[in-house]
Design brief:
18% strand, 757 residues, single chain, alpha/beta
Length: 757
Amino acid sequence: MDEILLEEQRVLEDKRKLIKNEINFKSNRLEEVATKLSQLVKEVKGSYSVEKETFKVLKEFLEKDIGNYTEAINNPYFGGIDFKENGNFEETIYIGKNGISNTKDVEEIVVDWRAPVADLYYSGTSKESYYKSPKGIIEGKLETKRKFLFNNDEIEKVFDEAIDQIMVSGEEGKELVDEFLKINLEANTGKKLKEVVSTIQKEQNEIIRWPKNLPIIVQGSAGSGKTTIALHRLAYLIYRYNENLKGEDILVLAPNKLFLNYISDILPSLDVSEVKQNTFEDLMLSKLKIKLEVYDKDKKIKQILNEKDEFKKKLILNSSKVKRTLVYKKMLERFIKLIEHISFDIKDIRVKEEVLFDKKYIEKLYKNDFKMHPINKRKDEIKKYLQLNLKNKVEVTLAAIDEKYDFKVLEIKREHKDIEKRRKFLIDIYDERDMLKESVKKNAKREFNVYFKEWKSINSSDLYKEFFNNEELFDSATAGRIPKVLEQYMKSEFDNNIKNNIIDEDDLAPLYYIKILIDGISDEERFKHIVVDEVQDYSMFQLDVIRNLAIGNSLTLVGDLAQGIYYYKGINSWDELIKDVFNSEATYVQLSQSYRSTVEIIDFASKVLNSQNLNIKECKPVLRHGEKPKIIEVKIEEEYVTEIENIIKLLKENNKGSMAVITKDDKEANNFYRILQKNSKYKFGIVTEKNDKCEEDFLIIPSYLTKGLEFDCTILLNPSEDRYSESLLDKKLLYVSLTRALHMEFIIKLDSITKLI
């Protein structure tokens, strides 16, 4: 056993003793706090008490620390650095998933991976190094990095790396080798996404620690770790901005509920709680407060794949293409401007025949003075403004009544010479005047409130229906830019959906944008940071709406143009997104490494990637080799089951657990699922759009639902020429399917294999 390993094992024992002491100290303190809290609860008897709340928070902190320290005691850290700050002694710093401090002397036993100094572990690549701390730039010398491989809670191996030799060139200079990373990747199994704090790479670390104030867009090919980076970034941001950023301030948008389940373990494992996780569809439904069945993108792509009528398919695609654009957004803005001037029949505010505020004045307020406010907010603003003047208006009206009746009195005096008759008329006119004045004084406030109560707010759903149903307004708003045949299809599709209580996902962003235009959006409705995964599948319009929901444009967007299977509505160019949605104020980063698959699997998929002719660099694989993807030929369909069972046997022999049989579409998936149920000794699960989880080790899954997921082994079922043509959609579906495997990949073919492979 080498000297360094022995020394590190001694350090580990010392660290464990310190951690145990901390657990004991905090456990004793927890008992004291719990006892005191129990006394306070009895004393205040349900009333609010500052002291009680303070002890309650203290108890929660202690429980959390004890839990973290107990979890950490077996593997308290994964790395360390020797750093000599300028003007100070060299210090050895150990870095772990959770920071652990010695309460007595306030020294850090283990430094949290998110701490400023830990940046040196991930990104320090030269001896003369620095890191940014709250105190400013800390400069010094980074002497050594160490990575610790644990086995059965003991250090098995120490990777003691000299600076500048952390990464070495692989074969032909194409690949990158990190032995510690390679070992961890070999051990990786794909059931759910896991935290990777011990193996975060330099390019990933820079994204994770990027300031939160500007949007960052990350292009990463399959297996580049972009989702993992985005979620680790949340953990970092909450740590870095802990005074004003909490879990509940953050939203993660994922492509579907299955994917949400796939990432469900990672945030709790990073000690991040209460982050809101949702799909775009469900987020919009909740914001709009509507309960309709969503015709989502997976149902639509299934429709596109199965549609035999090419003209109908073209209409489906073009409808989505129109609704994806910011041009469509402009059309809706024009529509709202038109509605603004014709939708509201403004009347006087009266008490009987007396006008408190005339309609021309109210109309001026509505169309000019308060036009900076959303339509529905103007009513409230006008009401508040007029309410300030109501008392004065009543007094002016009463004075006007007096003046009007003074004129009537003069008329009576002039017309009636008989004193008794004149007296009777005057009494009547004075009574009439006084009753009217009393009515104005008594009813002015009530009539004022009734007026604004009857001023109905307009509804975004009703307006969107009006957009499609009012031909004159539609033509004016769209300026004839939508061809008539497509216009008719869009209108009939929308009407049919409404009749069946369905809303197309493509209509959610437009509908919510109308709501923003007429109701506005408050900070309470928004988030301090939003993560969008698989961003290439969102339309420009959807992303513009999401931008509106992020305070200060604080967004992390991760995606891969090569996997844009919803190409007809999604992002075609990052430049277009940055320019048109973010006004050229966004940071763009392209990841250069791929970590998921072996070199052989990545090389096999690269032919399909290159056929897409995208303006993105191909990721370099981490130097992890395995078997080349194997093509197995069968003569009849019945042989599928035998070959799959042979692969499962091989999988088990290699201590791997998860496997996916990937079909082109859901129809093929359902058919093959029935075959396996009937003929296989193994239990299989099937993934559909309705799944929010799949617990089985062996799955049948359509190609378009595999995005973002990974498995130890994948089997691509019969990718024949008729299934995968030269179309852009087929290229993207095939590329996605070929990049899901961590360790092993098989293709079972019955017919002639596609030329794309």
